[in-house]
Amino acid sequence: MTNNFEVIDERYEASHHAFKSYAIGFVLSLLFTIVPYFLVIKRLFGDQSLILAVVFFAVAQFFVQVVFFLHLHKKSRPRWNMIVFIFTILIVAILVVGSLWVMRNLDYNMTKVFDLNTNEGYMLEKK
User: Fold this and answer.
1) In Å, how far are 4, 11, 19, 80, 118 from 14, measured between CA atoms?
2) Hey, which of 25, 55, 79, 125 has its CA 20 to 30 A from 61?
3) 43 Cβ partners below 8 Å, 6+ apart?
4) One-character DSSP codes across the chain
5) pLDDT tens sequence across 25-73
6) pTM listed for this prediction
C-alpha cells in the first residue's frame, strides 16, 4: 500500500516539471520574438541576411511551441499526435494559401489599369 505523502510528492513533482517546461518555453518564445524584432528595427544585417535570420527565428519559435506547449515530444500516443499535428498543418496551409489567393485576385481585379483610349473604366464623357 502506498503512502499518501508519496502520491502527493509525485503530483507535486509532475506539476513542478510542467511549470518548469512552460516557463522555459515562455522565456524562449519571448527571446525568439524580441531578437528578430530588434534585428529588423536596428537593420543590423542586409536584406537577404535579415530575411534568413527572421526565418531562422520563426522556425526555432515553431519548434519551441511544438515541444514546450503542444508536448508532441511525449511518448503517450506519438502516432495520433503526429496525425493530428499533420492535419492541423494541412488546414493552416489551406487557410493561408486560400487567403493569399483571394487577396491576389482582389488586388488584380481592383487595381486594374484601364487604357484611356477605350471606353472601359469609369471615364466620364465631356459634352
Assistant:
1) 16, 5, 9, 23, 74
2) 79
3) 50
4) ---HHHHHHHHHHHHHHHHHHHHHHHHHHHHHHHHHHHHHHHT-S-HHHHHHHHHHHHHHHHHHIIIIIS-TTSSSSHHHHHHHHHHHHHHHHHHHHHHHHHHHHHHHHHSPPPPTTSS-SSPPPP-
5) 999 999 999 999 999 999 989 999 999 999 999 999 998 998 888 777 6
6) 0.58
